[in-house]
Structure formats: structure tokens, C-alpha cells
Write a structure and sequence with these properties.
Layout lengths: L5 E7 L2 E7 L4 E2 L23 E2 L12 E4 L9 E6 L9 H4 L2 E6 L18 E9 L10 E8 L8 E6 L2 E7 L6 E8 L5 E9 L8 E8 L6 E7 L9 E9 L7 E11 L8
Antiparallel strand pairs: 1-2, 3-17, 4-7, 5-6, 6-17, 7-16, 8-13, 8-17, 9-10, 9-16, 10-11, 11-12, 13-14, 14-15
Length: about 270
């Protein structure tokens, strides 16, 4: 990725226009200045994330999240995220037996990550690539990325999940019993899926916005699949992003997913994998 500011021709939202190619706000793609990216056995999150999923008796669930040499989308490392039976987080997951292995960029809070909390009017693009192994196990429901209010909070305002073999964007329409979903594409296994998700943060239904671009494989064209106007933030709360695997109980089975090239930025081109 270029580090300077250059002008490029970009195709966005079906229209052609010039856009400044800016470096991302932050890049948490596992290839960092740290020798091994995510610090697996350090007892605390690696340098590029504020926190990871908490679990009973352990401050951080580092034994389930690690850097992996393959498959990787770019560079030398990606994240391997695994869940096993009763991997409950610190968010009352035990009551639903929901299992998770997630990274969080700002919640719980951590010094130096305060600028990653989102507020009213913030406009951010997120880009990343996800690889579902051929033996990846789907539960009754599963979430791979979410943008939600800081705890305590209910269902995420925005979430990328798989249902009935399809990638979908879910929007919590308040209350959380009313969730609107927008189809994206089939969630095929054994291949990289590339995403750009654009969120205009607002608790006002007429001002918030969600857009999703998707491409299958390394070389496919990122195509906009979702564009909706809705609320994207809980009123009077800050939002943050979580990345990983969060799902209904798999009844004794384990599963894992690979994620790479996660970036956040102000423009499509600064984050597109």
C-alpha cells in the first residue's frame, strides 16, 4: 500500500470519480512492527488491538487467536481465530452458550486506543478478507464482524454474518428483537472473501448509512451489494468494531476462520483488500 498521498481514479457506488488515496486510519492486518504480530502468549493483546475476547479465569483468550502463516491474504501473516466448546466471552455469553473468539479495537478500553471509538457523524470505511476453511462449521447463527455500542449494549447495530449459506449484513432496528438483514453473496468455503464496509455513524434513522462491497477470490472486482439508510449507533453511546468468530453453540465441535488485511480509513481506496 502506498504511504504517500496520490490521486487515483476510483470506481465507487457505480460512478467514476477522482478520490485521494489516503493511508488508513489504522492497519491491523497482523503484519505489524512487532516481530510476530499478535502476541499469542504475552498475557495481553498485541500492539494492534485494544483487547480480545475475555473468558472465565483468563484476562485474554490468546490461546484461541494467533497469527498464522497460511492461508494468508497478503504479507506473511493473518489471524487464525478458533472457538471450542464453552468459549464464552465476558458478555453474558454463558446464558445463551454463545461461543466467540474476537478482537476489539476499543472496548474494553485501553490507553492509546481512544480515537477508535466512533461517535455521531463519524464516517469510516473498513476493509478485510475472510477465509472459511472447507471444514468450517456453521452454527444456527454466526457473526464475523460487528460495529456496536460499547458495553453494556445489546445486539450490534451493524453485523456481518452468515445465514442459510449466505453472507448478510444485519442491522439491529431497536429493539434487538427486530433485526433487518440485507443479502450480500453466497458464503462459499475454501476461498477468500473480500469486504469493504462503509458506516456513517448516527442514531438518526435518516442520517445513518451502511454500504457493503464484496468480491469472491483474490482478483474479483469489489461490487457494492448493500446500501441502506438507517440508524447505525445507539443514542448517547460510542461505538467500536469487533472482528472474529462469534456464534451459537456448536454442540462440542470446534471451528476456526482466517482473517487478514483489516484496515479502517476515511476512503474506500485506503482500505480495499
Amino acid at each position: 500500500m502506498a504511504l504517500g498521498t496520490v490521486v487515483v481514479l476510483a470506481l465507487l457506488g457505480g460512478g467514476v470519480g477522482f478520490e485521494r488515496y489516503l493511508t488508513p486510519i489504522y492497519d491491523s492486518g497482523a503484519d505489524t512492527d512487532a516481530p510476530s504480530g499478535w502476541q499469542v502468549r504475552s498475557g495481553r493483546p498485541g500492539p494492534e488491538w485494544a483487547s480480545t475476547t475475555e473468558r472465565g479465569g483468563r484476562p485474554y483468550m490468546t490461546q484461541r487467536i494467533s497469527t498464522a502463516e497460511g492461508p494468508v491474504f497478503d504479507g506473511g501473516y493473518g489471524y487464525r481465530m478458533e472457538t471450542r466448546e464453552r468459549d464464552f466471552g465476558a458478555y453474558d455469553d454463558a446464558s445463551c452458550e454463545c461461543e466467540r473468539a474476537e478482537l476489539a479495537n476499543a472496548n474494553p478500553t485501553r490507553s492509546g486506543f481512544e480515537d477508535r471509538l466512533l461517535g455521531e457523524g463519524d464516517d469510516v470505511y473498513y476493509g478485510f478478507a475472510i477465509y472459511l476453511p472447507r471444514r468450517h462449521v456453521f452454527g444456527r447463527w454466526q457473526v464475523y464482524w460487528q460495529s456496536k455500542s460499547v458495553a453494556p449494549a445489546g445486539s450490534p447495530e451493524n453485523a456481518l454474518h452468515v445465514q442459510d449459506g449466505q453472507w448478510q449484513l444485519a442491522n439491529d432496528d431497536e429493539p434487538s428483537t427486530s433485526i433487518r438483514t440485507s443479502p450480500i453473496a453466497p458464503a462459499g468455503k475454501g476461498v477468500w472473501h473480500r469486504f469493504v464496509i462503509h458506516i456513517k455513524y448516527s442514531s438518526d434513522y435518516s442520517k445513518g448509512r451502511q454500504e457493503v462491497w464484496h468480491a469472491k477470490g483474490r482478483d474479483g472486482t469489489l461490487t457494492r451489494r448493500v446500501s441502506v439508510t438507517t440508524h447505525t449507533l445507539e443514542k448517547d453511546k460510542a461505538g467500536h468494531v469487533r472482528l472474529g468468530y462469534y456464534h451459537s453453540p456448536l454442540k462440542g465441535r470446534s471451528s476456526h476462520v482466517f482473517v487478514d488485511a483489516f484496515r479502517a480509513g476515511r476512503t474506500f481506496t485506503s482500505v480495499a483488500p
